[in-house]
Write a structure and sequence with these properties.
By secondary structure, the protein is an all-alpha fold. It has 2 domains: 3-192 and 243-445, MFS general substrate transporter like domains (Growth Hormone, Chain: A), CATH 1.20.1250; 193-242. Helix content is 77%, strand content 0%. It is built from 16 helices and no strands. Helix 4 (94-122) packs antiparallel against helix 15 and helix 12 runs parallel beside helix 14 (346-373).
């Protein structure tokens, strides 16, 4: 097997496992809540802690990969994620579990920050859209099968086996890429910006934690404002340092900048959809985890089919129009979900999930292709990292918003009216997500025309 094929297979596997683990955890939340003796809305931290850890270190690790070697950082990330995943399978204390999930996120950022750069580096420009589409298909396959397989494992083997089996799969993947000797660099022999990395890490953690825990502690209210000050300090520091964490000149490219903004808002509006619908199907409609997981298969199944075709199409036609069409479809679908009640037809829910899946598939691959196609080869590493930062930060914002709204609505809830209040909160969550899609649609349209390759 050639080294190029090893990299391609390894990246495809981790592209599958990352979202598979996320969607599996979503479907397992009610069982985890029962095991830890917690309310289901409090288990949002099982997802949020992972995302905060990933988003806070992804950009620094992406830059470190450009300096020390992308394969090298990717391999180290695999070793760390194997260890933390297996620990998640056995830890008994809830706070310890959340902390390990945070460490798991830190480990996964070493993979997220390098995988796209590895793919683009080892394939030709003429196949970039197709390769990105295949990677996206693996992502959506993971999202698709996560609820289904995760629900089965949760019902028959226990939710902890989800982490155990994923840890074993990651260990196999580690040995697959361990034999690859070639490496790729984007800024070899450059100095690493430790000060900028620390500022960035603290900024992301304060912002996302402050947003998530807003209603529980008064001192948390100051965190997002401190994060904004740190953001301004980060921009100033990056302009002054000789070897910055990220070359800010890359954002002068309008296609690159607006495509990333669209991606950020898109994931902020859509990522928590699976989590919210998992709670709706299991707690409001009474489904077991396996049945709910099978039902949620509809959306990512459509995404998996559409994504490679949309990616290949964006190699020939404008990514802007294809992606914007997809964003408009997701906006309509999310607003439609704000009308969910206890008696909504499962047929209508399934049709809307398929509609949103089609929109997601049309948006993601063309938008990613526009981002990677807007920069020179020497910027592939930083562009890959920024794209991953947008995705993970958006996902973390999505879960933080859900955590915030659920904590507001369920603050005074008692067991007898908990489900009714939970259902009421879903309406406002979906309305908020719909408005975020409107903003993302404008960003997608404002990116301008890119060069069709």
């Amino acid at each position: 097997m050639t080294e190029q094929k090893r990299i391609l297979i390894a990246v495809m596997i981790t592209s599958f496992i990352g979202p598979f683990m996320g969607s599996s955890v979503n479907i397992a939340v009610p069982a985890m809540a029962e095991d830890f003796n917690m309310m289901p809305d409090e288990l949002t931290w099982a997802v949020t802690a992972f995302l905060i850890g990933s988003a806070a270190t992804l950009l620094p690790f992406g830059r470190l990969a450009d300096i020390k070697g992308r394969r090298r950082i990717y391999l180290q990330g695999l070793a760390c994620i194997c260890a933390t995943t297996l620990v998640c399978a056995v830890v008994q204390n809830f706070l310890a579990f959340i902390f390990v999930r945070f460490l798991q996120g830190l480990s996964m950022s070493m993979i997220f920050g390098t995988s796209m750069a590895l793919l683009v580096s080892c394939c030709g420009a003429e196949n970039r859209g197709k390769t990105i589409g295949l990677s996206a298909a693996c992502v959506y396959s993971g999202v698709s099968l996560g609820p289904f397989i995760g629900g089965f494992i949760t019902d028959y083997l226990g939710w902890r086996m989800i982490f155990g089996l994923i840890g074993i799969a990651l260990l196999i993947n580690f040995f697959l890429i361990f034999k690859v000797k070639i490496d790729w660099y984007g800024a070899k022999d450059k100095k690493f910006d430790y000060i900028g990395s620390i500022i960035y890490l603290v900024m992301i953690v304060l912002f996302l934690y402050g947003l998530s825990d807003w209603t529980r502690h008064e001192f948390v209210h100051y965190m997002p404002f401190i994060a904004f000050i740190l953001f301004l300090l980060f921009i100033y520091e990056q302009k002054k340092v000789a070897s910055p964490l990220v070359d800010l000149s890359i954002f002068k490219n309008i296609v690159f900048t607006m495509s990333n903004i669209a991606a950020l808002i898109h994931y902020s509006a859509t990522f928590a959809l699976g989590f919210v619908l998992s709670l709706y199907l299991q707690l409001v409609r009474g489904m077991d985890a396996f049945t709910a997981g099978g039902f949620l298969l509809i959306q990512p199944f459509i995404m998996t089919i559409v994504s490679p075709k949309a990616g290949a199409l964006s190699d020939k036609f404008s990514s802007r129009l294809i992606a914007s069409l997809g964003m408009g479809m997701m906006m309509i679908g999310l607003f439609a979900f704000s009308f969910l009640d206890k008696d909504t037809s499962f047929y209508l829910i399934g049709i809307n999930l398929a509609f949103i899946g089609l929109g997601f598939g049309l948006f993601a691959s063309p938008n990613n292709n526009a981002i990677m196609g807007a920069v020179e080869a020497k910027f592939y590493g930083v562009a890959s990292s920024i794209l991953a930062v947008m995705r993970l930060t958006g996902q973390a914002i999505s879960m933080s918003l859900v955590t915030l709204l659920l904590s507001i609505f369920t603050a005074e809830a008692i067991e007898s009216n908990y489900v009714d209040i939970l259902l009421h909160s879903f309406k406002y969550i979906f309305i908020l997500f719909g408005f975020l899609c409107i903003i993302a649609l404008f960003a997608s349209l404002m990116r301008g025309k890119e060069n069709v390759k």
